[in-house]
Design goal:
312 residues; alpha/beta; Arc Repressor Mutant, subunit A; D-Maltodextrin-Binding Protein, domain 2; LysR family transcriptional regulator
Length: 312
């Protein structure tokens, strides 16, 4: 087994969390996998894995070495792809991630159009509500709704979204329209659970000052919170793209717009440091203008003051 094959074995053991599972994944014998890892540890002069009869886990040195191995193997795959022409024509599998609701509403339709435009590209999507490490999870492009930290990722801005407070016209007719964040104490609020189960605070103003609304319902899904607001159960906090259709249709109304925090940017991000494959460049070029257009359409304005007054 050559050195690169040994690195692949080590990565498989770490990712599969065991020698037997790695052996099945690689279609090798368990003793061959064990010998490869032992030889690797002897060569680097450090223990990379803690082994017990029930589990295998990385040592601190193993965690660092795993990240380096993944980078080396990915560089090799990309070099092979470049030599084979994958950088000249969009082809192969493209993996794209986004948050659950944004992915469903805006990314999924783009992916279908992209498949039609690029018949040699296949797409794998991952729509989850967590920050995904692109390299660790084998992903090519992410849509990030956040202020980006300094990183090795290339970012293409495609717009921004607002954090809005919405309620149904029926609810506002019964309870009145809050004029300032302090008025939230006199309203029923629908909260989104954060770590520990408590409702996340609502932030207002340019300095994003936290406010604690009078929460009567806590849910762990933006879809559920919006559904409760549509049913007239209270005020909900959402991102503008999530409620755009309901606001335009008059099913929800934006309140406290003058107290909103600054908009949150939206970017397409992908790893830099290596020449991007044609499929990645093609998708970014395809998706960026379409997402910009979608985000502009998904930024509903609040009702004018006169219209709000009629609902009091």
């Amino acid at each position: 087994m050559d050195r690169l094959d040994t690195l692949r074995v080590f990565v498989a053991v770490a990712e599969q969390a065991g020698f037997a599972a790695a052996a099945r994944h690689l279609r090798l014998s368990a003793p061959a996998v064990t010998r490869a890892v032992v030889a690797l540890e002897q060569r680097v002069g450090a223990r990379l894995l803690h082994r017990t009869t029930r589990s295998v886990r990385l040592t601190e040195a193993g965690e660092r070495y795993l990240a380096d191995c993944k980078r080396i193997l990915q560089d090799l795959e990309e070099a092979d792809a470049a030599a084979g022409g994958d950088y000249a024509e969009p082809q192969g599998w493209l993996a794209v991630t986004a948050s659950s609701m944004f992915g469903r509403l805006h990314v999924a339709p783009l992916l279908l159009d992209f498949l039609a435009a690029y018949p040699k590209v296949n797409v794998r999507s991952l729509f989850v509500d967590r920050v995904v490490n692109l390299v660790d999870e084998g992903l090519d492009v992410a849509v990030r709704i956040a202020r980006l930290p300094d990183s090795s990722l290339t970012a293409v801005r495609v717009g921004s979204v607002r954090a809005v407070v919405v309620a149904s016209p029926d609810y506002l007719g019964r309870r009145g329209i809050p004029a300032v964040p302090a008025d939230l104490q006199g309203h029923h609020a629908i909260g989104i659970a954060q770590t520990g189960g408590r409702a996340a605070p609502w932030r207002f103003g340019r300095d994003a000052t936290a406010a604690e609304p009078a929460v009567r319902l806590v849910v762990n899904s933006g879809d559920v919170a919006i559904g409760a607001a549509l049913a007239g159960h209270g005020l909900a906090r959402a991102l503008s793209y999530q409620v755009a259709a309901d606001v335009v249709a008059g099913r929800l109304q934006i309140v406290l717009a003058e107290h909103e925090p600054p908009p949150t940017p939206v970017h397409l991000v992908y790893p830099e440091g290596r020449k991007a494959a044609a499929k990645v460049r093609a998708f970014v070029d395809f998706a960026a203008p379409r997402l910009r257009e979608r985000l502009q359409l998904a930024a509903p304005e609040p009702m004018p003051a006169a219209a709000e007054a009629e609902g009091r």
